[in-house]
Amino acid sequence: MTPSGTTSGGAADPAGQPAWELLLPAAGAPARRRGRALQEALREAVRSGRLAAGTRLPSTRELAADLGVSRGLVTEAYEQLTAEGYLRGARGAGTWVGGAVRVPGGGGSGTGGAGGTAGADGRGVRGPGAGVPGPGVRVDFRPGTPDLSLFPRSAWAAAQRSVLARLPHRALGYPDPRGLPELREALAGMLARRRGVVADPERLVVCSGVAQASTLLGFVLRARGLRTVGVEDPGSPEHGRLFASTGMETVWLPLDGEGLRPEPLAASGVRAVVVTPSHQFPSGIGWSAGRRAALLDWARAVDGYVLEDDYDGDFRYDRAPVGALQGLDPERVVYAGSVSKSLAPGLRLGWTLVPEELLDEVVERKRTMDLGNPVLDQAVLAEFVTRGGYDRQLRRCQRAYRERRDALLAALAEHLPGTGVSGIAAGLHVIARVPARFGPPERFLARAAGAGVALRSLEEYGTARPADGDVRLVIGYAHLAPSAIAEGIGLVAGAVGG
Amino acid sequence: MTPSGTTSGGAADPAGQPAWELLLPAAGAPARRRGRALQEALREAVRSGRLAAGTRLPSTRELAADLGVSRGLVTEAYEQLTAEGYLRGARGAGTWVGGAVRVPGGGGSGTGGAGGTAGADGRGVRGPGAGVPGPGVRVDFRPGTPDLSLFPRSAWAAAQRSVLARLPHRALGYPDPRGLPELREALAGMLARRRGVVADPERLVVCSGVAQASTLLGFVLRARGLRTVGVEDPGSPEHGRLFASTGMETVWLPLDGEGLRPEPLAASGVRAVVVTPSHQFPSGIGWSAGRRAALLDWARAVDGYVLEDDYDGDFRYDRAPVGALQGLDPERVVYAGSVSKSLAPGLRLGWTLVPEELLDEVVERKRTMDLGNPVLDQAVLAEFVTRGGYDRQLRRCQRAYRERRDALLAALAEHLPGTGVSGIAAGLHVIARVPARFGPPERFLARAAGAGVALRSLEEYGTARPADGDVRLVIGYAHLAPSAIAEGIGLVAGAVGG
Questions:
Q1: ipTM exceeding 0.95?
Q2: Measuring CA to CA, which of A34, A296, A417, B320 is 20 to 30 A from B433?
């Protein structure tokens, strides 16, 4: 259980101790929390600079032996942090501390600077009425809405009662525009734990959701002289509309399978981008570690900012969610999330983590927009998070949505054979590519609509117009029962001759 | 009970019937509601054009006889509508329909156009932390906060429970940016009844309070090319700050005892003003009917807009509240109010009534700012308004605040004799003018602070610097128990040698 001297080159910290010592408390955590604790400790060691960029890590076998934990736990930690961009590795060639991290006060030096960039994806923001079926719609596969019937009404009502019973009178007065202190504290802890962000409650601003976080940032950047913002192509057109309301023009930046393509980003002249690296909307990819690092290099090189729209980062079905980009450089990344996918969009309750440099301006914008979020819902959410209700709700949704995703994949395989589903197993939607023989796309969509099935084509979310005749769909499944999913895909197949 | 032929010149409507017939249903209302019903019917008759501008009304004695109601009721109705600007009258010379009304679809022609203007006053918007006593403060007379202990916690909790039990799942989705339909309906009815506004639910936008209503309007007007907004002097500096955040510069416009002075307004070049005609903040005057009409004439002449901040219009202690300016011309007046004084500022829940011409732009702004207000509080307030809880709450506050105002006046008379209190008996604050012998002002305020009493000087709210040596204070009393009020004024008197 004590660290041996098997540290690899550079792994000793200034005090001369092997840095692996930092990981020991994590290794001593109870078994069920040991894996996560190890990852958190490793992340923190990289952030703090105690593990400097370029440091070669011990092999998984060596470190497991040093720490007295299973080798699988170490392998998993290396993989997780590699996906998030903290570590770099090549099969058979070992694992190093990457250069992507830049946390003030920490020493994550970072060499990087390859001038690359990374993909922009967008969702979490959305116009009114989405997901509300129109007349004649039997099954609505349009993405963007969670299952509203999963809202934990009785638990929420109990928390409301408790809040009204205990809240001091003065809390009902004009609020702190940054949000209720107890909520900021609770959210910071939850986000650090679940999303791997650097979450200082002093940097967290409660807002009405990712949409407001976008508008707040847009106004601040516009006042600083920026006039354009890059958005992912394909991506959510809503990001562009929100920034347009602040006087900023949108530049579409092309994605590939790893993230934003570096050259078009570098050539665009923008100094701000909106991205969804954990689960790109709508393409469904998770950004590669290389593109995450490249995006941050770009942001540093142009003195720019990245808005990370973490609209569904909590929902990953095949592995632990990849930590947020913000954890790698909290001074360049504005992180935004909300309860819209986990509880209900109607709560209009979210958060943004803001670089120190922009904080005062964002808070003053928030103040002039609405003086701050309503206090009662804030207090209820704080209680919900601190007493475990929020984690329970996420687990509940996770189970339901995984089951629905499986139901969708099975229905597609059965009724529209040959359909490919791309993207990671995550979130509330998939990209399905239906073979050309069921098309062409316009007829496919028209016939589906005729059969009472509302579908959205991928083309609605960007500038690309593929010519292969395949039908590319963005299918939201989270709000539909498995039986409705099967019925809907069956109706489509019947209408298009599947 | 039937109308006789005693109608005065011009009072017959196009169908040839005496217009007084319009008032008959009101006259037949149950006794306790008869007075209000008569006023509403008379207001509506003027708005609809059935009583055209210039029409001479019967004497109070004649109309009372025609309608079979008491003469006092008619006198009261004439006085009320004269104060609001619907009617004009001169002692002994009779009463006419005024020219101020301009309601589309109605025929309230209006001659007006005298190029006058009216006073700007401002509150209802406020920075964070107001009313929160600092360390060492024993009694805090700073204005702006209601008594937060009057918030009806158990009634609100019951409404929350009922809402969570009945709300359909889809109501938890992305909201209508204009607000929950049931709340807009409920508020429109309540505002028409209580504040005499023309309240079409389709024109009502639920927002987070008067502050957001100001910012929404500011952005819309700025996008239309306006660059300046007039505010009342004295007035709330917060209005200027909010409009500044939208890119508009503030022009202070001087008040006198009746409202905004016409000449400086006309000379200012502004095409938008923010005013508080029902109870000017901070001076406490109610605008005269003449200045109300003149302001609307000005707005029409310059193709401008008036933001009416009705921050405390529900609280009047000596008579029925004077109806809102918006009722006279809903196409020129943007009306804004909130629950901040009646329930709690922390709810961040308010409303704005918007001219047709600006409606789409205001709604789109609201959408990009936050997608709409949170739905649960909206549903709770709707239930509260429709089931009578809101009226009960207003009555409760009204009783408490009237008692506190009386306690303040008594304490001033006892401890600081010679102090004059100006302004109408309304709202949550008074202007007190303490004789120069207790001064000078700086020393007075310093000594009060030294005794643990927080006070605000009128000079903080505008540009005027009177040289008479009297101490002019803006004293908020609503949040203090009568005993605390007496204690606070006693402490001041002890410190300044009263």
A1: no
A2: B320
